[in-house]
Protein 1
Amino acid sequence: MKSWIDSLLTVLAAEGEAMLVTVAATRGSAPREAATRMIVTPGALHGTIGGGHLEFEAVRIAREAMRECTVGAWLVRFPLAASLGQCCGGVATLMFQRVGARDAWPNALRQAIDEDGEAAIAVAIGSNTPCVVARAARCADAGSHSRAQSALRDAFSSTHPATRLVDENDCSWYIERMARPDFHIVVFGNGHVGRALVQVLSTLPCDVTWVDAREHDFPASVPGNASIVASDTPEDAIDDASTGSHFLVMTHSHTLDFDLTSRILARGDFRYLGLIGSASKRAQFERRLRARGFGADALKRMTCPIGSGATFPAIRSKEPGAIAIAVAAEILQLQEAICSAATGHRARA
């Protein structure tokens, strides 16, 4: 997945500077959640904080600040109904932060997350103090600001929210914990449904491994969050996948589908196993899987049929795009439930 950090580094390398707009806090209904980001340059936008009048005003403020060479970071509070006329009616507090190619913290943050799996940042509001990057093993020094230092340490605790605004004397701090993305999907098959599914998944915050032996059947270009594996031994991708991955089996061969399905079930540590096909295909596979020693509990973890007509019975279309959208919704529902159970109140500031 191309994260906002990767996008920011790419923009800085190309243009030298940018404005980073972050949803620092929300109250009530708001277009996007805290920690959502948008990168603004004089001629382009990367990411979104929800569109509408809020985003229009944020872009205007960011570009005006770039023209006036405003430095540091600052907050702007937007009552969405009162000041912007947006019907969601909540309050969004945005942080504006000028970032230049010489700033070291984006690379430090990328490195910390890559190496440790997580990191925290502290941004001093209304100050030219650069962003502080902290690692759980050795929290960075926030100077004499004891509350900010304490908030950085607390950021790594599951009992504290992932984002916070901390006031201390004449300075405010935006604190946020970030973790390496844990949303991995392995798609077997580059047929019509496989292609449609990978395109749909390109709009989600996930990493996709796209596997097929037919190397020349892959499209000329693939989404930025997808990696192609062209292999005569596609089952190796099962062994290489991380714990908690999502698997979609939709190859051109029922024999290969069965071999892949049985290997995924044998591994066991997956979050989702989807097999394309009909109810009769499922019945046939279940008989063969039982003969290989798989019990009822294992078979219940296999989703087949997938997508339209199955999880969403009101959608009867067998168009590749309809199936892809329904399958992506299945996976997204599961991922949201897992994240909510694991993080609880950490999802919001």
Note: The CA atoms of residues 208 and 226 lie 4 Å apart.
Protein 2
Amino acid sequence: MVRFLLRRVGIALGILAVLSVMLYAMLDIALDPLDDLRTSTALNKDELIAARVRMLRLDEPWYVRYWDWLTGFVQGDWGMAWRTGQPVTALLPGAISTSVQLVFSATITAILLGVTIGVVTALRQYTTFDYAITFVSFVLFSLPVFWVAVLLKQFLAIGLNDYLNDPVTSWPFVIGLSVVMALFWTGAIGGSGRRRAIVFAVAFAVTFGTVLFITTSGWLQNPSIGVVGIAVIGVAVALAATAVFAGMNNRRALWSALTTAGVGVIAFVALQWVFYAYEPNNLMMLGLLALALAIAAAIGWAFRGPDPDVSIRGAMIVALFMSVFTFIDGVLRGYQDYFNASTIRGRPIATIGAETPGLGGDYWITHLDRFTHLLLPSIALVLISFATYTRYQRGSMLEVLNQDYIRTARSKGLSERVVIVRHALRNALLPLASIVPVDIITIIGGAVITETIFGWSGMGRLFITSMNQSEADPVMAYIMIIGGLAMLANIVADILYAVLDPRIRVEA
């Protein structure tokens, strides 16, 4: 393993060195730091050009300047954004933080949704549901992100902000959404005609009732989840996690998940006093999440059963979901103050920037503001990335389902749930090991087009701004960071392959 890592790191450093030389040379040709002065009408135009040439050493060969840049880069001096006079190292932390906020949530959401839908479409191969998801995936994959962003701004931002100021129930929308969700769940669950009819009716009724309650009860003006909502979410997740990972016949796993849901409801009530008495912060929230997962693991271990890992996993999934929705409930409680703030002016869905300038407020208001700014760009990124993961996972799952060992598992009398979850799914995730690490690790590079359209000052925006201003040092820093992370992601993917598949050896 050590020899493998040393060899791969050496190759990566060599590639980065060659990449830096080539790109520095191309930037020297592409960028013109004197462009604004060439068209200047200043009387001392020649003196200004000469001063900038001396400052940027443009009279020296590019390879001399490259060597000086490289020696400084290795020593931690990553150059200067000469138009603002700021060191590149001072620009990177804020840009990286902004990009991680924007792209991380979108990437994780796209992976979870894409893998789940991909598995379901593979299990429903050649059905109407499969054809519909395939069509939607290809349409989303082919859409340019800037066009999606414009549509989101027009219909989800402007339209939704107008609706929130004058909420009127649209019956065609309520009925249409209910029918779409009913068809989705009918196709996803499948089964006999009678089962499909029941699923359609239940899904239609639940969606119709939920949307009608949201639009007519005033929930949009004063949103919250509440103890009842938390209890419903906890029980639903407990039943779903048990059904998928353990089977409803595993009573110990079921009681483990339901007990965790009950403890979660009690914790939700107790936390309302904690949040009232103490000002929350991110460290406190992470500590509470870790505590919730630890308690859930203890509950799962206490119930154990024939397979303790299954009980622990189900309990921890329930704890994770309930923790997330408890946090969301706290954020929603600040909605009234946020909506009525003078800087928001009754239009909470933001279209530009990462935060509202001049907005005051506590921990919950700050996070609500961050969420409203994340909403549109995250949806744009999820819609585009979701299609890729869906297609990859569907193809991989279909390939695994046709293997001999799957037919053997079924012939031994194993339930379909065990065959899919324990045998097929684990191996179907292998091809994604080469894609997901790259997407996750390189999120620090930001989304160039999305950040530009939505006015986020992340790594992608830094790259575009530096290119437009002919600042080579920030561009080189961006390229080296992204290139280095891409190399790291490929190394991680190789190691994951070896961990997931014992037939693979990294020494090979």
Note: The beta strands are 80-81, 86-87.
